[in-house]
Predict the structure of Gas vesicle protein.
Amino acid sequence: MLSAADAAKAAVHHVTELTGRDAESVIGAERHDDGWRVTVEIVEIHRIPDSADILAVYQCDVDGDGDLVSYRRLRRYTRGQVGREN
């Protein structure tokens, strides 16, 4: 079984490869079934100033070997948006 850190690295790799966009951070990781569910924040659109960037949160499931099982975008928001979790 992968460690949480290795699962997060695998998830970031898969999401950046599939979306062609930059990962901002890993914002969550939890054991799920026979692998991990990792939540990754991605910069979808770079803007000037940076506070206007459009970010997205992706949920990725990776198996015990680090292979991608599924991924989906949960939400999008501007970087400057604070305090809104849905």
User: Anything to note?
Assistant: The longest helix spans residues 4-19. The mean pLDDT is 92.
